[in-house]
């Protein structure tokens, strides 16, 4: 059976501090669903740590189609963003942004040292986060007349569907969601209702 759940964070992590040869690395993990949220959180962290040297990050969005980005922000190529992204992958989470802020302490760490420090900071932030499992949902919009309201409501109750939104004007329109693996069965039950359009 196709997987219809994914793991993400319940809430942002506390700030985690990792020190390596006088450099300080602050790690943060956030649940996010859009790139706009990513940009806003990065802007916040840059304000908060305006005197830091680097603000490196990685994020992954999406459940079935995944989109990710890793940014070294001036550190040597692949020494920061990818190690952070590697932790997102190893925790198996998505819709997540991890930022690691570095204050340079005067001692160069070398690429190996940087990879290790960014990886550890990301890992600490993710370890301190509450990871939850959510379902991947399918959405249906039903359009029907008032006369069919009771039949529709009965199925919503029987199949334990979530009502995402509803418009009750001359005709009724309800958007429902259900976890993906139940979708074919729900669709079948709804298609058996005469006089109802499914989008």
UniProtKB/TrEMBL annotation:
Please cite one Gene Ontology biological process associated with this protein: regulation of translational initiation
Q: What residues does the Impact N-terminal domain cover?
A: 21-126
Name the InterPro entries on file. Impact, Impact_N, Impact_N_sf, Ribosomal_Su5_D2-typ_SF
Its GO CC terms? Answer: cytoplasm
Similarity-based family? Belongs to the IMPACT family.
Protein name (database record): Impact N-terminal domain-containing protein
Organism of origin: Flavobacterium subsaxonicum WB 4.1-42 = DSM 21790
